[in-house]
Design a protein that fits this description.
With 337 residues, the protein is an alpha/beta fold. The protein contains ten helices and 14 strands. Helix 5 packs across helix 6, helix 7 runs parallel beside helix 9 and helix 9 packs parallel to helix 10. The model has no long low-confidence stretch (mean pLDDT 97). Bound molecules: phosphoenolpyruvate and manganese (II) ion. The site of manganese (II) ion has 5 residues, from loops.
Length: 337
């Protein structure tokens, strides 16, 4: 169960509740985030709820028996919104569109992408500087210097950035140059990394594991939340199945299910989801209908010479067309729902 506490609850008040919970054979964990204080009590049976009325510092009690709790919609019916500042909001009234190359390739690549995004009024640029690559001989990213250039060019153009963090030791070095940390599919259950990202006050987009279940993704998100960071986005990027006609099996169902089970915003990644340029647009549009709050799309001025994932990058013309369709479809969806 989730016990919601007043923000001014004292250590003594929290201890009293913890002691009571232990007498009821429940094991308590205290959670403090940017926004609130909670006790998560885990056990076989819940006590009579009336017994909690003697504790002044409790504001609400929620019976959530799932393995994930704080990320569940069972206690928080309102969808969470991630505010990146300067009017850039994810999970609000507009679709969040994040676009950019798979890897940041250098100044020219940053500048031409920024110009393309500005022309299309896209406010979030993606791009990896630490790249998880299947082969150690492939391009592995420009590292922290590349990140600094990426961030400063975007900042001076009013664009936020999302980039992948691969290990906890990178978090601190990156923190002044990141608007959203991305946790990639390969790190989706790197619990040390998730714990560490829970301790900072920056949004984190958590991708689904390569063969991860929806429940595993939600439990991974719970690691971040329960360590103190409520600013989480969930990302569907496809899973590995027996099908090999495309890169991954993009799970459109997961989008609808995640929106039902969690209050966190859901972002679709059709680029890695299908992995073939000519299908990315259709899958992106299907995601919007399935309930996604936004998309993350790989775009490149010349996909054929991209340092990584060129086969699934849209060129600027294709991307421009897709942004228009996403915005149009979003408006249409609002109209009919
Ligand atoms: C990426 O976004 O570039 C990436 C590596 O994605 P994933 O972790 O989903 O494979
Ligand atoms: Mn990629």
């Amino acid at each position: 169960m989730i016990i919601q506490l007043k923000n001014n609850s004292t250590k003594t008040q929290i201890e009293e509740i913890n002691n009571f919970l232990k007498t009821q054979k429940l094991s308590p964990s205290f959670v403090q985030t940017q926004f609130g204080k909670y006790i998560i009590a885990v056990g076989k049976n819940y006590p009579d709820m009336r017994l909690f009325s003697k504790f002044d510092s409790i504001t609400d009690l929620h019976r959530v028996s799932d393995n994930y709790k704080l990320v569940s919609k069972k206690w928080k019916l309102d969808n969470s919104i991630i505010d990146l500042g300067d009017g850039v909001i994810i999970g609000g009234n507009e679709p969040a569109i994040m676009a950019g190359p798979c890897s940041i390739e250098g100044e020219e690549n940053i500048l031409e992408t920024v110009a393309h995004l500005k022309e299309n009024n896209i406010k979030i640029m993606r791009g990896g500087v630490y790249k998880p690559r299947s082969s150690p001989y492939s391009f592995r990213g420009l590292g922290i210097d590349g990140l600094k250039d990426f961030y400063s060019e975007c900042k001076s153009n009013g664009i936020k950035i999302i980039t992948e963090v691969m290990q906890s030791s990178q978090i601190e070095d990156m923190i002044d140059y990141v608007d959203i940390y991305q946790v990639g599919a390969r790190n989706s259950q790197n619990f040390n990394l998730l714990d560490a990202l829970g301790e900072i006050d920056k949004p984190v987009m958590l991708k689904r594991g390569i063969s991860g279940t929806i429940e595993e993704q939600l439990q991974a998100a719970e690691y971040i939340f329960s360590n103190g960071n409520e600013k989480i986005l969930l990302c569907e990027r496809g899973i590995r199945t027996y099908e090999n006609a495309y890169r991954n099996t993009f799970d459109i169902n997961a989008i609808s299910i995640l929106k039902e089970k969690s209050h966190l915003p859901v972002i679709a990644d059709p680029s890695h989801g299908v992995g073939i340029r000519k299908h990315v647009g259709n899958v992106a549009l299907a995601s919007i209908i399935a309930g996604a709050d936004g998309v993350i799309i790989e775009v490149h001025k010349q996909p054929q010479v991209a340092f990584s994932d060129g086969q699934q990058n849209l060129d600027f013309r294709e991307a421009t067309e897709l942004y228009k369709k996403i915005k149009g479809l979003w408006a249409y969806k609002k109209l009919i729902s």
